[in-house]
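Recall from the previous lesson that a structure prediction takes nothing but the amino acid sequence as input. Here we apply that procedure to DUF7482 domain-containing protein from Vulcanimicrobium alpinum. The sequence below is the only information supplied.
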Amino acid sequence: MKILVRAALAAALILPLAPTFASAAPLDRAKVVLPSAISVDLAANTVTLPLYRGSVHGNPVWYIKTDVSNAAVAKREGLLYAPLLASSASAAQHATGASNAFAFAGGVDFTPQRVLTTAADGSVTAAKPGSVGDDAYSPFVHAAANGAIYNAPIVASGAHPSDVATHNDTLDRVVAIDTRDTAHASVTLVLARGFTNGQPIAYISTDASADGPAAIERSTYVPRLAKAAAAAIAIDVLFNGRTDGESQGIAAAGLHGSLGAEATVQNAAEIGSPLNVQATFPAPNFAASGYSPLWHVAPAVWTAAALSGGKAHRLRSSADFAAAASANLITAPDGKPFGPAPIFVNCPVVGFEAARP
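The prediction returns the following tokens.
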């Protein structure tokens, strides 16, 4: 039973769900909140970002930069300002060198083969991550040069990583990579979708503190992320729910696609999300906010009474989840009161589709 609950919790994080968002390619730059993003394509369900060459013990690796704890640095480097990252020091690794050429203390092994199998009802029966950080690795990087803490996940390794078919040297979310010109290198990753304050958002997932969620999210397994709890914000995740045009959650996701396939440019648009709800969103103009790329997972299920009574509906905000919990319509998967579980995921925001949350 414990294994099944663990697998189910993992599966709630990012299961395929048929896209229900309007498609537009590329996304209007006014709706792209990560300034350095090269392009965001909602129709293709991808984002292309600058890629930087670094090293781990002298060996070449490639990483992205999405967030930083210092507002001036964020503005200068085109990153999201995430003040809460300053509270992640206990989980951060140290790096020397400039921020576009970090020498990291820890790295990632991309050689494991990702395993993800599901039952006929879409529930996860086996999950093994395709990339694993070593004991010194963290996507949160304390830069010796300026003292700031960056969100700088390593997404590929080797002098010229190119395996976007089996992902033997790249993150499982990578569908294209170009390292021919180090000064203009880029990487394209599959997006995830969700909501903040009722508005649809797009983000990426790069790391998780537990192996099951890492496998599901096509991200790197990084246990030490759990040490950064003080830097985390809530993300609400449904297991079950409606399976019609208002689909949301693990049950609907299990009906709309397979988790086991390798992500490619060709199928990226089919790799969707269960439409999780993030508590806060980055403030405009590099202003301080409660935003963080680290999310603390709060899983939920609709009660049998809510489902049979037709009260299940798409939840689009933290307030929606709180109201459903207060009305005893949702609980934690084990039947206990709705609340956070000991799982953390690194999911930096990329943009929004309609109005800014």
